Every structure is written in C-alpha cells, then in structure tokens.
Amino acid sequence: MAQKSLHEEMIHHNHTDPHKRGSGLSDFILGAQDGLVNVLGVVLGIAAATNDVRVVLVAGLATTFAESISMGAVAFTTTLADADLYQSEREREYRHIVQAPKLETKEIRDIYERKGFSGDLLDRIVETITANNDVWVAVMMAEEHQLSPVDRKTAFKAAWVVGLSAIVGSLVPILPFMFLSVAVSMWMSVLVTALVLFGIGVYKARVTVGRPMRSGLEMMLIGTVSAMAGYLVGVLLKVPPLP
Predict the structure, then answer these.
(1) What's residue 170's pLDDT?
(2) For the chain, how many structural domains are there in total?
(3) pLDDT single digits (tens) 73-127
(4) Is 55 contained in some domain?
(5) Which of 15, 37, 46, 196 is 20 to 30 A from 142, comparing alpha carbons?
(6) 3-state DSSP assignment of residue 221
(7) Binning pLDDT at 50, 70 and 90, where does residue 7 land?
C-alpha cells in the first residue's frame, strides 16, 4: 500500500473523515425523545380513557408546552451545575497540589504507571506534568475525576436546543388527531412516533458510533414500550360515555 503524502492525509483528516464537533446532538436527542415518548403516552392514555379528540388535543398541547419549558429549564440548570462542579473540583485540585504536593505527585505517577509507562520515561512524564500547576491540575481533572470543562455560556444554547426539540418531538404524536378519528389516530400516532424514534436512533449512530439499524430499533422499542404505559392507564381508568 502506497504511503500517503502529508497533503493527502490532511484532506482525509479534514474533509473525508473529519472529527465530529459538538453540535448539541445529545441535547437534541434528549428533547426530541422526551417529547415524543411523553406526549405519545399522554395522548394514548387520554384517547383510551375519553375517546374525545378535543380533550386529547388539549391535553397533548398542554403537555407539549409544559414539557418543553420544563426540559429547557432542566437542561439550563444541569449545564450550570456541571460547570459549577468542574470549577469546584478544579479549585480543590489547586489547593491540593499546594498543601499535599507529594500525594498529588504520587497520584500522577500512579495514573501513568497504570497506562504502562515506567522507568526514566515515567519519571520524565511526572516531572514535566508537575512542573506546571495548570498542566498538573488539567491532567488531574481529566484523568482522576474524568471531568471536562463546561462553559456556562452553553447553558442557554442547551436550553433552547432541548426546549425546541421537545416541542417538535411532542407535536409528532399529536398531528394524527388533528385530521383523523380517535381510533385511527391512536394507531397512526404510535406508527409515526416509532418511525421518528427509529430515525433519531439511526442518525445518532451515524453521527457518533454504533450500528444504525440496531440503534434505531433500540430507541424505537424503548420509546414505544414506555409510551404504552400511558395507554394502559387510560384503559384502566376509562371514562364511561355520557348517557
């Protein structure tokens, strides 16, 4: 096999097979999946209990907007909490390397020893890392605590992505009830939601790692089975028709 030139490798690295950059994928999946599953469960439960399309639509839309606001708020506060946790642990590590430098140095040595380094090379690695407090702390945060920096500014973006994707996802199981009878809408709602969940799973696997078909089937199965709980509650608490 002919060896590639540096230029050819750069083309492959940057264009043919580029690294995936953070794009809010996890936030999108969180919001969309939550909206799809929760609202499907609500509309199926209400439809099974009342057989009244107006009640189904009101309950579904109310859940949609309450869900989106709640999910957006959760994403916002969770991101801030992650940022605060990282900052708190980072400050603690700075205190530790000042107050207990021998112990912290030993921790660095243990980390890289477990990675297979030894002898003079291990000594040089430890000496290089511990020579700079910022590098020392960064290594401890990544290797010991398994924490990555979180920008507090991303909290607003996370809230918007989760909130909007929750709205979009929530509207999917509601749409059939706007045009079809309740009985037909229930089946169509399950079918369309399952297909969308399958698509999200496939997309996730293609953007990250995994088998697209398996990922799609897993997300579809988990989502629809979870939503069936709402249907069962509706059947059990079915409201008798008015005389």
Answers:
(1) 87
(2) 1
(3) 988 998 899 889 989 999 999 999 889 889 989 999 999 999 888 889 999 999 9
(4) yes
(5) 15
(6) helix
(7) low
**How many beta carbons lie within 10 A of that of residue 79, not counting itself?**
22
Is 39 among the domain residues?
Answer: yes
Reduced DSSP (H G I as helix, E B as strand, rest coil) percent helix, strand, coil of the chain, to 5: 80, 0, 20
Domain presence at residue 17: no
24 vs 107, higher pLDDT: 107
Please give the residue range of the domain that contains residue 37: 24-236
pLDDT at 124 (0 to 100) = 93
User: pLDDT at residue 18 above 60?
Assistant: no
Rounded distance, CA 221 to CA 229, Å? Answer: 13
Residue with tokens 């009101």: 58
CA-nearest of 200, 234, 236, 235 to 60 is 234
Which region holds residue 148: left if phi is over 0, alpha if psi is between -120 and 50, else beta? beta
Total-model pTM: 0.70
DSSP assignment of 153-220 equals THHHHHHHHHHHHHHHHHHHHHGGGGTS-HHHHHHHHHHHHHHHHHHHHHHHHHHSSS-HHHHHHHHH
Among 29-33, 52-56, 58-62, 109-113, the minimum mean pLDDT is found in: 29-33
Alpha-carbon torsion, ordered 195, 198, 199, 205, to 10 deg: 180
How many of the other CB atoms lie within 10 Å of CB of 206?
13
Distances (CA, A) of 212 to 33, 59, 138: 17, 34, 35
Length of the chain: 243
